[in-house]
Write a structure and sequence with these properties.
alpha/beta, Quinone Oxidoreductase, Chain A, domain 1, Rossmann fold, 2 domains, 7-stranded mixed beta sheet, 6-stranded parallel beta sheet, 18 strands, 25% helix, 26% strand, binds nicotinamide-adenine-dinucleotide, binds zinc ion
Length: 365
């Protein structure tokens, strides 16, 4: 099946619109007509060459769409189903899957067996799918474990957010850190991931939710979604005010990535506090932490994709969105079309507050 896709050929580089071939599903695969895809910073890290991946590649992993056709062994979704993709595809049988940590799955046997044509190609040459999904494309093709069905009433520009931003940010709070009512927290970075962590803090009943961002334009959304206080980490007076208010927090969340933000998030903790690292580091980053504060009962942990069990989590988050407990509307900054994608990614650092979502509609086809 032919599909117009945004292709990355070099990194750092730009996305170019090209026609690719999306193969028919193999036994365990699902082919999906894309409705909407959120613009996650993890794709931007690849576009900028901070995280190296095989090229050419079609990025886009925070996606919702409609199942077009399925392989003979696919049992949990059918053509016509509305599905959300999540990059935490999983085998169901490895030690990680069986111990409830499918986000760490060894992923043996999920790729196509040798000898088969590639899932995505162009003139017979392999095109790689970013994070196993490749949804900046009219159609994408994934292993069946990378999708879960969602209720229809949720508009697709909101539903897309569930696949990465929400599952990652909310999961970091609920699953990885397990924030309890009354505990205090700080979230550094108020993009799609940070705003989701802030919402989860509100839902978990956190006592104080201090949001940090270097861009003050992000403050109003953070406050709307549950932050109790907002701070600019570059201003010493803001840091002093935070210290006076909290004396250090029980939970710090780095929703930016890299050694500087990881260390400053750690510095926001009180004794016994936990620093949860969500932001993606560059390929060769090392993190350095002061030893004595670490000895004082503080902990540091990574959170991969919000330690998710997404086939359970995403339908739950969808119901929370429908009931109004989870505010996806306020997380949306704007929608763009495929032809606006490259310019939007280039301007993402100074972009509008909230998540920008690529929307496919009949007119753009
Ligand atoms: N752990 C995971 O599994 C996982 C999953 C998805 C995304 N991520 C990573 O999470 C991070 C955030 O992703 P996103 O899509 O929300 O990004 P985003 O670009 O939407 O938002 C980043 C926010 O951080 C702010 N910021 C930048 N530098 C800052 C600093 N020094 N201090 C405070 N705020 C700062 C920006 O103004 C922006 O509001 C990225 O590194 C992304 O790759 C990790
Ligand atoms: Zn993502
Ligand atoms: Zn597994």
């Amino acid at each position: 099946m032919k599909s117009t896709a945004a292709m990355l050929r070099t990194a750092p580089g730009a996305l170019t619109l090209e026609t690719i071939e999306v193969d028919a599903p193999a036994e365990t695969e699902v082919r999906v007509k894309t409705s909407a895809v959120g613009l996650c910073h993890s794709d931007l890290h690849i576009i900028r060459g901070h995280n190296r991946r095989p090229l050419p590649m079609v990025l886009g992993h925070e996606a919702v769409g409609e199942v077009v056709d399925v392989g003979s062994q696919v049992t949990h979704v059918r053509p016509g189903d509305r599905v959300i993709a999540c990059l935490s595809e999983h085998c169901g049988w490895c030690e990680y899957c069986l111990s409830g940590r499918l986000f760490l799955c060894d992923r043996a046997d999920l790729a196509r067996p040798p000898g088969r044509p590639p899932r995505l190609s162009q003139s017979g040459d392999t095109v790689h799918a970013g994070f196993g999904i490749g949804a900046f494309s009219e159609y994408f093709l994934v292993h069946q474990s990378a999708v879960t069905a969602v209720p229809d009433p949720l508009p697709h520009e909101y539903a897309a957010l569930l696949g990465c931003a929400v599952v990652t940010g909310m999961g970091a709070v609920f699953h990885t850190a397990q924030v309890r009512p009354g505990e205090t927290m700080a979230v550094v970075g108020c993009g799609g991931i940070g705003l989701s962590a802030i919402q989860a803090g509100r839902i978990a009943g956190a006592g104080i939710i201090a949001a940090f961002d270097t861009d003050r334009a992000k403050f109003s959304k953070a406050l709307k979604l549950g932050a109790t206080h907002v701070f600019d980490p570059t201003r010493p007076e803001d840091l002093a005010e935070f210290r006076k208010l909290t004396g250090g927090v029980d939970h710090g969340f780095d929703a930016v990535g890299g050694p500087t933000v990881a260390a400053s998030t750690f510095s926001l903790l009180r004794k016994g506090g936990t620093c949860t690292l969500i932001g993606m580091p560059a390929e060769d980053d090392n993190y350095t932490l002061p030893a004595m504060p670490l000895l004082m009962g503080r902990r540091v942990q990574g959170s991969l994709m919000g330690s998710n069990r997404f086939p359970i989590d995403i339908p739950r988050y969808a119901r929370m969105a429908l009931s109004g407990d989870l505010d996806l509307q306020s997380m949306l900054a704007k929608t763009v079309t495929l032809s606006e994608l490259e310019a939007t990614y280039q301007g993402m650092d100074s972009g509008s507050a909230g998540r920008t979502v690529l929307v496919f509609d009949e007119e753009s086809r």
